[in-house]
Amino acid sequence: MSTVKMPFFTIPIVIKILRNELLKQGDLYDGFVASIFSVLKPKEHYIGDGESEIHAEYGAKHLAEEILNQIIGMEDGDGSN
């Protein structure tokens, strides 16, 4: 059996790679935007004149957790708060 050699990346290097890919605003960027939007859109309420808002019933911490859980693929009931 042959082995595949993969380069070793530290977390800071991976973060830099991810950041650089997101800065290109390509498919990965679009995927992140779509994922964040899918969390926020159901909570958005139209208030008129083309404006909308997110009601205070959704605290910032709760929204941040939902967004991160969506991005990493954690479903409700997978240990999310």
TrEMBL record:
Protein's UniProt name: Uncharacterized protein
Lineage: Bacteria, Bacillati, Bacillota, Clostridia, Lachnospirales
Domain of life of the source: Bacteria
